[in-house]
Amino acid sequence: AVDMKGIELDLGYRASDLVTLGFSGSFNDSKIKAYNSPTVTALTGITDYTGNEMPFTSKWSANANVEFHGDIVGHDDATWFVRTDYIFKSGVWSNAANIVKTADIHKVNARAGVARGPISLDVFVTNLFNNKSFTSVGDNWLYSPGLPYGSTHSALVVGLPEKRTGGLQMKYKF
Q1: Structure confidence at residue 28 (pLDDT)
Q2: 138-165 average pLDDT score
Q3: What does the alpha-carbon distance between residue 72 and residue 69 come to, in Å, rounded to a whole number?
Q4: Sheet architecture: strand order including 2-14
């Protein structure tokens, strides 16, 4: 049994013909009222999870972006843009005992491009500052010869982030 409450917000604002701003965010609050997990109890020794937060769920998340865009002078069907996104996600617990939590994620993505008629060309970089925070975490078993740790959870499995990636993307619309 869990009490859940939260709120989401999504805002967009065109500041001028040149600038568009965006923001989205969410708050997700959870409180465990009653829970029973023999595997988590065997791992942590904890039997009462009352008041703890739900595992695998970020309490806070947000995205803010700014985009500059416009027409290319002298070409009726040509446009350009430059966009930057900042993404935040608070850490998540590995289980209901609330002992192990991932670090917060802070990522920045950037993209710029031009389009003329049906053809567009973009350059992009994701995870610009190469944030290495884990994307998820969960309990698991450690596999070793003879399986001495196989009866209870004895390891953490984490989701690895994508490293900084850059590229060039060309599109043709027909």
Answers
A1: 97
A2: 81
A3: 10
A4: 2-14, 19-32, 60-71, 78-89, 105-116, 119-126, 165-172
Task: Please tell me the predicted confidence (pLDDT) of residue 152.
Answer: 73
When pLDDT is cut at 50, 70 and 90, the band that residue 102 belongs to is very high
Q: Report the C-alpha gap between 170 and 154 in whole angstroms.
A: 47
| pLDDT above 90 for 155 | no
Share of the chain above pLDDT 90, in %: 83
Tokens for 114, please give them: 């031009």
Smallest CA-to-CA distance from 43 within 93, 114, 95 is with 95
Residue 49 to residues 38, 57, 149: CA-CA distances in angstroms? 12, 16, 24
Q: Across 19-154, where does the E strand assignment appear?
A: 19-32, 60-71, 78-89, 105-116, 119-126, 136-140
d(CA 122, CA 168): 6
| Polymer length of the chain | 174
Q: Do 133 and 116 contact (CB within 8 A), yes or no?
A: no
CA angle (7 as vertex; 107, 10 as ends), nearest 5: 55
> How far is the C-alpha of 28 from the C-alpha of 130, rounded, in Å?
27
